[in-house]
Amino acid sequence: RSLAAGTYWMPFTANRRVRQDPASRLIASGRGCYYQTPEGATLFDTLSGLWCTPLGHAHPRIIEALKTQAETLDYCTGFQVTNPVTVRLADRIVAMAPDGLDHVFFTNSGSEAVDTALKIALGYHRLRGEGGRFRMIGRERGYHGVGFGGLSVGGIVPNRRMFAAGMLNGVDHLRHTHAPDTAAFSHGQPAAGADLADDLDRLIALHDASTIAAVIVEPVQGSTGVIVPPVGYLRRLRELCTKHGILLIFDEVITGFGRLGAPFAAQRFDVVPDMITFAKAVTNGVVPMGGVLVRSDLYETFMTGPENTIEFAHGYTYSGHPLAAAVGNAVLDIMEEENVFERVLSLETVLQETVHKLDHAPGVTDVRNIGLAAAIDLEPDPTAPGARGLKLFELGLSQGLLLRCTGDTVSLAPPFLATPQELRAMGETLAGLIETVTH
Ligand code: PMP
User: Domain for residue 68, yes or no?
Assistant: First the structure.
């Protein structure tokens, strides 16, 4: 209560109502797929934390790994020395990655991973004598974190506006790919729309390919509401990037480590980028960690070029932190032993059936899903956009669901260890709540 009465933690949330009445939103503990409030209520964790706790809370093997590592080696710099736990995790991540992505650069968050990838792209081109390639191409509605690089390539205009002075030069954005009128209620990937990738041709013609360093996209846009790319869209981007010497970066902070039933979205969509950023699920949200999977030639050029001194090269104090690495290894053990990716694919069908029961519900304008992720758009109240989403969030708390609503969109990304029954129960409760808020 004394914490709740304070104000210092509240700016963390963008939700005004939460700021006014924080006491009822405290989460006291978490076990498996559920949170408990101080009052003893239980909430199903419909978004796996913030897309980051696919194996649920307080997994005993993760707790054990953390304790053991804390007693063995609690910190070690990644400059000039390293440690076996971090090396092992890097090797395992490379083994899971698409062929060719054979180096891991560890960071502590998704935002840092994105900024690192953008720096690698710029450094690589410059050190190969192509310093004229300075432009980055993002995508409308893309979310790439809160660093200046990630904000610049991000496609959420209000997020960027206030920080114009710090934005990268020459960034442009591919047009949004989702057309609700044709792709509404998409079951998995929309079949049509690969030609939307030709928007990259427009930007290449506009800016000249020789000025473009990289294209960065989330394979499935997560934070802005599970926007699934049309079949062939990512492949077409790959072709255009290859043709014009532009690097392709997949931001897999949400999709990495199983959310789509494959280690990475790159494998689900069978398209290999030049770099993959990851974070969140790699440590099941328990300790911060992110990273970039990168081709060795890119990495070597970036790190060992004449303009980089080994003492002051790019890197973070906590890059490859042994505690995070120990947790990461435990996460991969669990994922391997419990065949988690297969489990996600079978749960995908259950989630799909569950959410698409709402296709024709009054007040629902679109329902999308892929892997263990889905989003439902509610028709906004014309006089108060966002109010229905907020109401849904509040009602969810009273009905045992912790929901993530951005505006009038609710996103779902349940834990991989949820049961089909739990997913169906979540869907039924949600359907009732949606009926209430749209009437
Ligand atoms: N990229 C993507 C695709 C994300 O979803 C996020 C976080 N939601 C980030 C980057 C930023 O990650 P972090 O919050 O760990 O900095």
Answer: no
Contact 341, 258 (CB under 8 A): yes
* Nearest-angstrom CA–CA distance, 152 and 1: 39
Q: Compute, in angstroms, the gap from residue 223 CA to the centroid of ligand 1.
A: 8
Indicate whether 235 and 123 sit together in one domain: yes
- What are the start-end ranges of the E strands in 56-140? 103-107, 135-139
Q: Which of 13, 47, 144, 152 to mutate to test the pocket of ligand 1 (most atoms within 8 A of CB)?
A: 144
Tell me the mean pLDDT in the region 248-261.
98
Q: Residue 138 sits in a domain of what CATH number?
A: 3.40.640.10
Instruction: Say what the pTM is.
Output: 0.94
Which tokens belong to 336? 């391997």
Mutate to test the pocket of ligand 1, among 153, 223, 255, 316 (most ligand atoms within 8 A of CB): 223
Residue 66 covered by a domain: no
**What residues does 174 pair with on adjacent strands?**
139
ipTM of the complex: 0.99
* d(CA 249, ligand 1 centre) in Å: 14
Evaluate: CB of 110 within 6 angstroms of ligand 1. Answer: yes
Domain match, 204 and 82 both: yes
Q: What is the mean pLDDT of residues 153-164?
A: 91
One domain, residues 399 and 354:
yes
